[in-house]
Sequence to fold (387 residues):
Amino acid sequence: MRILHTSDWHLGRAFHRVNMLGAQSAFIGHLVTTAREREVDAVVVSGDVYDRAVPPLAAVELFDDALHRLADLGVPTVMISGNHDSARRLGVGAGLLGRAGVHLRTDPAAAGTPVILRDDVGDVAFYGLPYLEPALVKDAFGVEKAGHEAVLAAAMDRVRADLAGRPRGTRSVVLAHAFVTGGRPSESERDITVGGVASVPAGVFDGVDYVALGHLHGCQTLTERVRYSGSPLPYSFSEADHRKTMWLVDLDAGGGLTAERIDCPVPRELARLRGTLDDLLAEPGLDRYEEAWVEATLTDAVRPADPMARLTARFPHTLSLVFAPERAPDDPDVSYARRLAGRSDQEIAEDFVAHVRGAGPDVREQGVLRDAFDAVRADGTVREVSR
Fold:
């Protein structure tokens, strides 16, 4: 069976105030064309179809267009909700859509109920594990402590139990939206840390033939059978070195697989430039970036006049301007930045408590702070302060 694996469309999201709807539409067209020309048997979309729980109308219309085009193509599609999606909203009409070959899996309780697709050699069971917010699903999965590993392990127990009762030789694919240990994050994913832990080990998914992951925006291979497709478009300058692709996966009769990266359309190159303003304006080696989306970090000791206007004269698509003046090592600003570098919200908060009262929080107070951060992350309203 040939499977096209994609995720993290984030329909409705802008890139530094640049409307990406046209680029997202071009990607949908590329997806449909690839599915037709490469004779794909199934498309899987591993969450974050939308960028927010209540997407703009234009994003909903684009999603509707994608569903119609995939249904018209006659290629079955399996989708799960991600941490940016509203599972309830995305899942509306799932029963009717399933009759058209578009299978939405947004209910955590249905993790062990697969979509069964058949090829010339037998059945392939597709299990959809939507994003599992630990605090919201721990009771449904019967786990005592809310944590990503615990709820995903419980969901996978249901998958393996169902698979064990199916005919011998049934192959299996799991769609999941999670941060798996070994994956490389970027700055554009929403933090999902719970209890100080964000990632789960890849071993949680043992026992299935292919795991189609979503959440991290860089395409990457954790093991031969566990892969992120990454987002088809960039959503932060931290993705400047990403090659945006989808995975084309072939599952043979015995569950062996081969995988090929299919490049996605690039609306515009990303460039992160650093130096003094005069150097950036004069360096001939930067000619290649004059049509790129640019993030410029200026290292001038004194902030120059009209830096954005002067930059856009050469780089008209400059979207981000950062000031990082070169300073002496003993400069107070430098030492403060170093103290914050790489520190979590929890650590910064604990340092603040220690600063204002002369002693850090005790174990109970650390728990209160951790619970508070977990609550606002679950609400989707905070990102890592240290970023």
